[in-house]
Amino acid sequence: MTGMAGGGYVAGSDKPEIETLRLGFMPLTDCASLVMASVLGLDQKYGIRIVLSREQSWSGMRDRLARGELDCAQLLYAMVYAVQQGIGSLRMDMAVLMNLNQNGQSITLSRKLAGRGAVDGASLAALVAAEPRRFTFAHTFPTGNHALWLYYWLAAAGIDPLADANLATVPPSQMAPSLAAGHVDGFCAGEPWGARAVREGVGVTVATSQQVWPDHPGKALAATAAFVRKNPNTCRALVAAVLEAGRWIDASAANRDAAAEAIASPAFVNVPRELIRERMLGSYEDGLGRRWHDRHRLRFYGDGAATFPWLSDGMWFMTQHRRWGLLQYDPDYRAVAARVNRIALYREAAELSGTPLPSSDTRSSILIDGSVWDGRDPAAYAASFAARKSA
């Protein structure tokens, strides 16, 4: 490669094709590395300028990306694969440039349900079995991460989300108000919205997403395949800048605190800093008196493990789309993931930013129900859940 020295852009064939990038984000704690790449001037170090655009909904951001009104975006990882497969939208070839974070989402139930004894999956299942009405649980998008964490957690407790509950789509920032108004009985969303429900006394945290899958993938830095094809150097520079930002955030509690202060501002998440800070540092309270420090807290770098676009991560989301009937057939899971996740481009950006690389493009994980996911036989893995859905 030419044009980069010591991580910074100099000149040559690797010059970014465009210097100004319109980058969409949602007001969530896990937008932090995108914001800090701009705030710390890391984008300029690599010869680009990030112009951040605060979006109001996942579907709106997806559509703006498709229309070319945004160049790249913080998207729900699972949503990227839904667009790639044409689930719930027109099919479009997509690209995952990197994973932006791991962990840090939560499942919240109303204080009313908690008062009736629903404080975990097993006690909620007992209440669901005894209740004549169906409870309503909200997620942020039907094909997105939060829907899949919610479904997986419910199913692991013996609750079939499709047969035993009503499901609703609610914007992240409206989760706590919807819970307070009684429109929903629980929800799964990114922070700080679970923390807000606890802080306002309307909800209790009954599970974190890292309990469902420790060190699970979070949001993706995504673009259309056409944009990446036309602007590979620009995309490489963007990934390098965001990698450096994630490393800076994870480097110390002081940096996390500074990042929390930055993203709490009205331009980004627009909440009090403390609402972001505590769970960003791994300090949790459930609203029922229990406090703990989560060793699988939200992380933005993890020595490169949190940002690498693992093929097995992309395949897992497709298996869950298949499990819940969103995908009507078994695709060539690995081939699709290899097209979407731009590992070669990521490796180049990792080299520029000094980010360690794993020895494999897949990894193995144990989820909440004891199932092992390693990407070896995704079709069999997806089929194995038929009995578990209504177990």
Describe this structure as you would to a colleague.
It is built from 19 helices and 16 strands. It folds into two domains: 216 residues, D-Maltodextrin-Binding Protein, domain 2 (3-Layer(aba) Sandwich), CATH 3.40.190; 108 residues, D-Maltodextrin-Binding Protein, domain 2, CATH 3.40.190.10. Strands 4-3-5-12-6 form a five-stranded mixed sheet, sandwiched between helices. A five-stranded mixed sheet has the order 9-8-10-7-11, sandwiched between helices. The protein is α/β, with parallel strands linked by helices and 391 residues long. Helix content is 41%, strand content 17%. Strand 13 and strand 14 form a beta hairpin. Helix 1 packs across helix 13 and helix 4 crosses helix 16. The N terminus and C terminus are likely disordered.
Q: What's the quaternary structure here?
A: single chain
> What CATH architecture label of the largest domain applies?
3-Layer(aba) Sandwich
- Give the domain tally: 2
Gross morphology is globular
List keywords for this structure.
391 residues, alpha/beta, 2 domains, disordered N terminus, 5-stranded mixed sheet, D-Maltodextrin-Binding Protein, domain 2, disordered C terminus
